[in-house]
Specification:
Elements lengths: L15 E4 L6 H9 L15 H17 L3 E8 L5 E12 L2 E10 L8 H15 L5 E7 L3 H9 L3 E8 L2 E9 H5 L2
Antiparallel strand pairs: 1-2, 2-3, 3-4, 5-7, 6-7
Length: 182
């Protein structure tokens, strides 16, 4: 799929920069899990409380970094320095094939301001230009219309509907050739 592993933090767009998550981010993520509806599209990581789920979610990303399987990174709003969500690249298996996926989650207060699209485009461009990806996907629940719109603004097209990890999802994809035409 790609050459040697490298995954960088500190990517920047007009309004955002990225950084690897740390265990200190758990408290902020606890608030994310406390908000109604936020966990609807997240895997059940087995925590008994929002705090447990936040810790498990952050630890999952730290393990991905350590295992060289990419991971979601914190999204920092440059103007305020606030952590506003996470976005990044994930290795996923779809139909037995390893795929590079862009995933994203924003704190509710930052919805509807174009941040998810801006962050997703940043990682799309990084995946193609720095990692040499031939194709990048997003796996999105069929009823998660806002995330589907982000994928479409990111140049992706809906390819198929499949069951995936307990959800009915759409696979959105952009090929390198399509990215080069953007």
């Amino acid at each position: 799929m790609m050459g040697s592993y490298r995954y960088e933090e500190g990517l920047e767009s007009k309004r955002l920069r990225t950084r690897f998550l740390t265990i200190e981010d758990v408290k902020l993520w606890s608030g994310f899990y406390l908000r109604d509806g936020n966990s609807k599209y997240l895997l059940n990581l087995g925590g008994d409380t929002p705090e447990d789920n936040a810790r498990l979610a952050v630890e999952r990303q730290l393990k991905r970094y350590a295992d060289n399987t990419y991971g979601l990174q914190g999204i920092i709003e440059k103007e305020t320095g606030h952590l506003i969500g996470q976005c990044g690249l994930l290795q996923q298996s779809v139909h037995g094939k390893t795929e590079l996926e862009i995933g994203y989650q924003l704190f509710n207060d930052y919805w509807g301001q174009g941040y998810a699209t801006e962050a997703a485009m940043l990682f799309r461009d990084y995946g193609f230009s720095q990692l040499g990806a031939n194709s990048i996907i997003s796996i999105i629940a069929t009823d998660n219309v806002p995330s589907q719109r982000v994928a479409e603004r990111n140049g992706m097209q809906r390819q198929e509907q499949i069951p995936y990890m307990g959800f009915e999802v759409y696979i959105y994809r952009i090929q390198r050739k399509g990215w080069e035409l953007l």
